[in-house]
Each structure stands twice: as C-alpha cells, then as structure tokens.
Amino acid sequence: MKAVAIDLSHPIFLHVSQAAARLGIDVYVVGGYVRDQLLGRPCKDIDFVTVAPASAHQQHGMELARLTASLIHQDLQVNYFKNFGTAQFRWEGLDLEFVGARKESYMRHSRKPIVENGTLRDDQNRRDFTINALAVSLNSASYGQLIDPFGGLGDLEKKIIRTPLNPDLTFSDDPLRMMRAIRFATQLGFTIHPETFEAIKRNRERIQIVSQERITDELNKIILAPKPSSGFLLLEESGLLRIIFPELQALKGVENYEGKGHKDNFYHTLQVLDNITKVSQDLWLRWAALLHDIAKPQTKKFVEGIGWTFHSHEILGSKMVPKIFARMKLPMGQEMRFVRKLVYLHLRPIALTKEEITDSALRRLLFEAGDDLESLLSLCEADITSKNREKVKRYLIKFEQVRERLKEVEEKDRIRNFQPPITGEIIMQYFGIKPGKEVGVIKEEIKDAILDGKIRNDYDEAFQLMIELGKKLGLKKSDQA
Ligand code: CTP
C-alpha cells in the first residue's frame, strides 16, 4: 500500500466514510476518479465500492448511499437500481455512485444478477485496466491509502494501458473494453501494452455482440480527443475498424496504374481530421472531416492523359452520410444535415481558388452554405494536406483571397441568409394560377438572376422580372391582382 496525494478534501469523502463506519462496512473510492486525480484531470463522477462480510445481505452499496445522503440533507433524492445493486445521487455538481464489491464480472450495465458479496480485490480483478482498478481507502485505519494490486500507478507513470488479468478474460467480460483501450490511449496519449493489444486483435470479432450505441459513444470520444488520428490508426491496426466502420477502412490503400498512384485517402482523411481538431471542438465538424472523402473508393477511375479521378465523390459521399448516421445510431436531425451539407460542398471553396473568381460564383456559395460558411471554410483549409510545403502555402494564400472576396460580396449583397423577395404566393396571386411547374420556374429564375447579379436583391426589381418571365410563359395578370 502506498500513500499518494489524492485530494480527499471535499466533504463528501468524510460523509461517506462516517456513514460506512456506522453501517460497519468498508468503503473505497475506485476507478476513473482515482485515475483522473492522479493525472490531474477534472472529474465529476465518483464511484464508491463497499465491502461487507460474506454473511451480510447484498444491498450494502444501496444502504450506504441512503445513509450518506441522509447525513448530508434530509431531502436529497437517491436513485436506486435494484437489478444492478447500485444507487446514485447528485450533490454539489458531483455524480456519486455506490455499488457493493462483486465477484462476478464488473459491468455497470450488466444484466447479470449479483450472486455473491466480493472482496475489494475481487472487484478490482474484474475491472478493465490497471489504471482504472486503483482504489483509495475511506476506512479510518487506512484513510487515504492507495490500493494498487496491479501496478496501475506505475502504468500511469509509464503511460500504459493494460488489463489487470489475462486480457482474453477481461475482454470476454465486456468486448467494448477493446474500444475503451483504444479510446483511453487516444485521450491520454498512452500506449497499449503489446499483450493487451494482441488480445484485441485476437478478440476483435467479439465487438459485434456489443450494442451500436456503446460503440458509437467510444468512437465519438476518440473523435473528440486531442489527436483523433492515433485512435483510428489503432482501430485499423487491430482490425476493429474493418468491422465497425468498413467505409473508412475502404479508403486505405493506393492503386497504381502505369506507374501512377493516387494519395492514400485513409491517411489523408486522418490528417484532415487532425487539422480540423486544431481549430474546432465541434464533434459534427470533425465528423464532416472524417466523411468528406468517404465515396472516393466507389468513384475512383483512371483516365488516360489525366490520371486518377474521383468524379462526383462529394455527391455520392453526401448520399452516404444519412446511411452511415443511421447505422451508427447518430442523430438524424440537424447534425446529420450539417455533415451531409459539408460533404456535399467541400470542393466548392477550393474550386474557387483555381479560376477567376466571379462575384456570381461567390454569391452562389454564400447562398448554399448559409450559416455554415465558416465551418465549410475551416474544413476546406484542413483539406489542404500536400507534402509539398510550398504548394500548401500557395493554396492557403489563395484561400485567404477567397475568404476576403466572400466577405466583400456578403457585405455588399447580404446573400448569406437570403430569401428570394418574390414568394410562390405572390406569383400565384399576380397571375391567378394554382401551384405548379410555372411557379417553380419563375422562382428559380428570379433566384438565379439575383445570384448572378443580373438584378439586385430587391423587391421591385424582382417583381418586374416576375412580370417579364410570366409573359414569356404566356401568363397574364389576373383580374384579382
Ligand atoms: N469499467 C470497466 N469496464 C467497463 C466500463 C467501466 O471495468 N466496460 C470500470 C472501470 O474501472 C472504470 C469504472 O468502471 O474506471 C467507471 O466506468 P466509466 O464511468 O464508464 O468510465 P471512466 O473510467 O470513469 O471514464 P469515462 O468517464 O471517461 O468513460
């Protein structure tokens, strides 16, 4: 046992300790809170494990929660999860969870009944990683002492993710832990111990028994990490990526034809994801980076005299977004629509650096991107990944010019959230017609005329154009108009 500096100054620890003493049971802080304290990371979730004699009945975790809560405040609401033998309450922004030590697999959401009271060691054995199996005593004889049977403290110092027991056993208890290993390695910048990593490779197929929601949760945490590429490289190397995200796996590899290769779109995508991570914390913008080239394998073609092309990959890619989101159980509302839109538009700003930039092209981009313009521009900048530094620099300078011009045009024409001044209602009323093809044609032409700068974004000019367009279509002013 070692004495280490875990901050137990918060009054909750004394309350829990006193309540346990009254009940005649032992209690320890365990898991993520201890790990995060030692790493100096903020943590608002505290897990308490109780240990009682084998003869005691099995609800002591719940009893401790009840007594602790009543010591703090009479009206504190405790939530009991009888099936899991756990209890939880919130206090001062902390999420406090209480559970009796168990012999069987430690699984917070396991549906298995708790059969027997376990010792602290039993409980630690069944946790996922050595760094998550650290416990701190809250019992008077050893208050504040760290109980570290698997060298978790050493692994924290050496930055290693390793299972406490034989990894095959730990992963078979809960195969999601294979993804948790990669997620912790990515979040903390740790390496996975070779034996643990080999076991992930061996057991990878078992990930298929885990619910998609839990897998996606881990995937999102990897995407939100400071350097998500390292997580995706581990997912690929372990063989998990092929199973959970085949579309991303398919980006890997380079084909050669007549000595000409294209860039490896897997590594390119990861670079774009890392680039965007430096400028944005937004999960969905990061998803857009991950998916921006997702349809490249399906659209790849070698064209004589030109080389490799990926024609329309942005269109097919945007069509793949809802399918991937649905399968991943990601939100299908505005988040999905945002990602789909960015994938669809991701070539547009770069295309503008290649040609003489006309105001009309800029207006169209402003109109289509709307409020997501800044995100789109960030994605496009992140997409510039050539190894040739000079080339990157040249592109970034041109890109800056596009940004400037977009700003000018927006200030001048206010296109960004523009609604064409002539509505379908006005058209129908003026010509006395019912909804139909003509209404759509007139609306579209008015919008195009504004975006192309032929008329100003102004009611009178648009109304005049509506009359002319109607004439061409053989429409006349209605008597009621
Ligand atoms: N745990 C486990 N196996 C799992 C999930 C959790 O052994 N599949 C154990 C670990 O000891 C972990 C503790 O339960 O530290 C708490 O789990 P959880 O709150 O999910 O994770 P944290 O480690 O706190 O980390 P995070 O909040 O980042 O998920």
Number of strands: 14
The CATH topology of one domain is: Beta Polymerase, domain 2
Could you report the average pLDDT, rounded to the nearest whole number?
Answer: 92
**DSSP strand content:** 5-15%
Strand neighbour order, sheet with most strands: 1-8-7-2-3-6-5-4
Going by CATH, the architecture of one domain would be: 2-Layer Sandwich
Low-confidence stretches: none
What's the CATH C level of one domain?
Alpha Beta
Count every helix, treating DSSP H or I runs of 4 or more residues as helices: 24
Overall geometry comes to: elongated
Q: Give the biggest beta sheet.
A: 8 strands, mixed
In this entry the ligands are: cytidine-5'-triphosphate
Radius of gyration: 30 Å
The share of residues in helices is 40-55%
Helix/strand structural class:
alpha+beta
Secondary structure layout:
Blueprint: E1 2-3, H1 11-23, E2 26-30, H2 32-39, E3 45-51, H3 60-72, E4 79-81, E5 86-91, E6 94-100, H4 120-125, E7 135-137, E8 145-147, H5 152-158, E9 160-161, H6 167-173, H7 176-188, E10 191-192, H8 194-203, H9 212-223, H10 228-238, H11 240-244, H12 246-249, E11 256-257, E12 260-261, H13 265-279, H14 283-291, H15 296-299, E13 300-303, E14 307-310, H16 313-328, H17 334-345, H18 348-354, H19 359-369, H20 373-382, H21 389-413, H22 424-431, H23 437-451, H24 459-472
Parallel strand pairs: 3-6, 9-10
Antiparallel strand pairs: 1-8, 2-3, 2-7, 4-5, 5-6, 7-8, 11-12, 13-14
Helix pairs in contact: 1-3, 6-8, 7-9, 7-10, 13-14, 13-20, 14-17, 16-17, 18-21, 19-21, 23-24
Bound molecules: cytidine-5'-triphosphate (CTP).
